[in-house]
Amino acid sequence: MDSLFGTYECKVDTKGRLPLPAGLKKQIAEVMEDGFVVKRAVFQNCLEIHPMVHWKRIMAKLAKLNRFNRKNDEFIRRFTAGAKEVEVDANGRIQISKDLVTFAGIDKEVVLVLNVDVIEIWDKQSYEKAIAIDMDDFADLAEEVMGDREEDELS
């Protein structure tokens, strides 16, 4: 699976079923059969969908942490809180559990944001607020995050 990219708007039904747009399904076709994990995001009030192959890599890293270190134990507990394994059903939908819908404040309209190897699920209004950043602030952020990189590292 190449790097995921794009933004899609769709609706979650009252039972928490999220239909995956055709453009997204095309990008994830090679990993759809393996399933996914839906979990709370770490830094934002949204959800993340991880392809199972990537989730297993994350779990391998977590397994190396010493659980007798309090910070490690707390991190693992919070990072995996609410995580659910999901599959794409015959109608091209995934089921989002009620607790995760509540965590992300999802009403009906959602935005799916594809970011490299994870798919974020945002309540539409929350997403609009999150990306409503002043252009100068974004330019400063871009410079801070990407400005020290060599040109060869970026291509």
Describe this structure in words.
By secondary structure, this protein is an alpha+beta fold. The chain is 39% helix and 26% strand. It has 7 helices and 8 strands, in the order ββαββααββαββααα. Strands 1-7-8-4-3-5 form a 6-stranded antiparallel beta sheet. Strands 2-6 form a two-stranded antiparallel sheet.
Total beta-strand segments? 8
Derived from helix and strand composition plus strand pairing, the structural class reads alpha+beta
Mean pLDDT: 89
The number of helices is 7
Radius of gyration: 17 Å
Low-pLDDT residue intervals, each spanning 5 or more residues? none
Briefly, what is this?
Helix content is 39%, strand content 26%. Strands 1-7-8-4-3-5 form a six-stranded antiparallel beta sheet. Strands 2-6 form a two-stranded antiparallel sheet.
Secondary-structure map:
Blueprint: E1 4-11, E2 17-19, H1 22-28, E3 36-40, E4 47-51, H2 52-63, H3 70-80, E5 84-86, E6 93-95, H4 98-104, E7 109-116, E8 118-123, H5 124-131, H6 135-146, H7 151-154
Antiparallel strand pairs: 1-7, 2-6, 3-4, 3-5, 4-8, 7-8
Fill in the keyword field for this structure.
6-stranded antiparallel β-sheet; alpha+beta; two-stranded antiparallel sheet
